[in-house]
Amino acid sequence: LIARALHELSPRAKGPLVKLHCAALPATLMESELFGHVKGAFTGALAESKGRFELAQGGTLLLDEVDEIPLETQVKLLRVIQERVIERVGSGRPVAVDVRLVATSKGRLNELVAAGRFRADLHYRLSVVQLELPRLCERADDVPLLVQHFLHRFATTMGRGPFAITPEAHAALVAYDYPGNVRELEHIIEAACAQSTDGRVDLPLLPPAVAELGRRKAVPRVGMTVRPLAEVMAELERSYLEHALREFSGSRTALAEALGISRKGLWQKLKAFGLDRGGGD
């Protein structure tokens, strides 16, 4: 998602966004996937094929889990980054490439370098700008927004009416630690929606470790103010729309498209929250 945002908010937005999940490829295919190959370059190469660098020409190439690339291929990747040319497997002809490279790593590259599992020179070339995504448990304020997003998504994909979440289940999801981060939250909501028979997501539908947290939160702490969930969600929605308006420089049309709603629907929401102050398109 971060790579897509970087791509779509850049001058390269009209170019392609090409992704390669490095951990999903065997070492023998990595070089061909990155740089392409010519016909007959190896057994099974029945036709010429472009690699991900050529496919991303003029756009962005995302190398997901770049730390999984074998050391011998890292040498060739370093050359491509430095010289901006690739050579297809089986060909000695250089091909110029112009891409923005975004790389992710599940481990810290400096630690992998120290362990001899990643080239130091490639690490330096990739680390021009570093972004570290905090774990979901470190940004608990994101959980309510993500929960509502996934409830809406699965109501649509499952072809069912809107799902509602009980306060107890909501408290449990906010309190959980999420070792699997956003993907784990997504799977929890999907499983709960699939099992729900009345359109409600309640504690019994959550994994035991999560549900137990909800039961502990069921009795409010002394001095804790409990407000209607609809009121809390309205505040979150208003805050999100206000932030999104700033991100899109007030452009209603672009924002409505990004949110997946009509421009009229967006206008009605902005009016309801007192955010329709004119300007934009």
Mean model confidence by pLDDT: 88
**CA-atom Rg in angstroms:** 24 Å
Question: Care to count the β-strands?
Answer: 9
SSE topology string = HEHEEHEHEEEHHHEHHEHHHH
Sheet with most strands: strand arrangement: 1-4-7
Shape: globular
Number of helices: 13
Structural class: mainly alpha
Helix content: 40-55%
Please state the oligomeric state of the protein chains shown. single chain
Strand content: 5-15%
Low-confidence regions: 219-224
How would you characterize the largest beta sheet?
Answer: 3 strands, parallel
End-to-end span in angstroms? 26 Å
Structure write-up:
This protein has 281 residues and is mostly helical. The chain has 13 helices and 9 strands. The protein has a 3-stranded parallel sheet with strand order 1-4-7. Strand 5 (85-87) and strand 6 form a beta hairpin. Helix 7 (142-157) packs across helix 9, helix 8 packs across helix 10 (208-217) and helix 12 (252-259) crosses helix 13. The two termini are 26 Å apart. The model is unreliable at 219-224 (pLDDT under 50).
